[in-house]
Design goal:
mainly alpha; 0% strand; transmembrane; transmembrane helix; membrane
C-alpha cells in the first residue's frame, strides 16, 4: 500500500468518525483537515518537478487551515485545536524554511510538510474519542467558551 493510499484511508476514517461522533468543534476540525488535504492535492505546482521550490499553493492552504484552527483554539472549549494549530504552525515554518535553506533535498521538504498531516488525523481521532467519553461520563460536553 502506498503512503498516499494509507493517508487517504486515514483521512476518510478520521473525517467520518469526527463527523458522526464528534461535537461541533470536531466536525469543523475534520471538515477543515479534509478540505485542506483535498485542496493541497489540487494546488501543488503542476509544472516541473514538485517540491523543488516552495509550493506556494500548499503554503497558502496551510496558512488558511492554521487560521481556522487558531480560531477554534480561541472559541472552542477544547484543548486539541491548540495542538493541531501548533503542528500547522510548524508546517508553515517548514515551507518558509526553504527560503533560508534552499538546498534542502526536495524529498525532505515534501516529507516534512506531510508528516504533520498524519499527526493531525490521529489527534482528530483521539479528540473525537475523548468527546464521546466525556459525553458518556457526564451526559454533556460543552463545545464553546462563553
Amino acid at each position: 500500500m502506498t503512503r498516499q493510499i494509507a493517508f487517504l484511508i486515514l483521512l476518510l476514517l478520521s473525517t467520518f468518525y469526527a463527523s458522526v461522533q464528534g461535537g461541533k468543534p470536531e466536525r469543523i476540525g475534520a471538515a477543515t483537515l479534509f478540505a485542506g488535504a483535498w485542496l493541497s492535492a489540487w494546488v501543488v505546482n503542476p509544472r516541473g518537478p514538485r517540491f523543488h521550490q516552495i509550493e506556494t499553493g500548499i503554503l497558502l492552504t496551510d496558512m488558511a487551515i492554521l487560521g481556522i484552527f487558531l480560531w477554534l483554539s480561541i472559541r472552542s472549549a477544547r484543548f486539541w485545536p491548540v495542538w493541531i494549530a501548533a503542528m500547522l504552525g510548524a508546517e508553515v515554518l517548514v515551507h518558509l524554511g526553504l527560503i533560508i535553506a534552499p538546498s534542502v533535498h526536495w524529498k525532505a521538504y515534501m516529507d516534512a510538510t506531510a508528516m504533520w498531516s498524519w499527526l493531525a488525523q490521529f489527534i482528530m481521532i483521539a479528540a473525537t474519542w475523548r468527546h464521546r467519553r466525556r459525553l458518556g461520563a457526564t451526559g454533556v460536553d460543552v463545545s464553546w467558551k462563553h
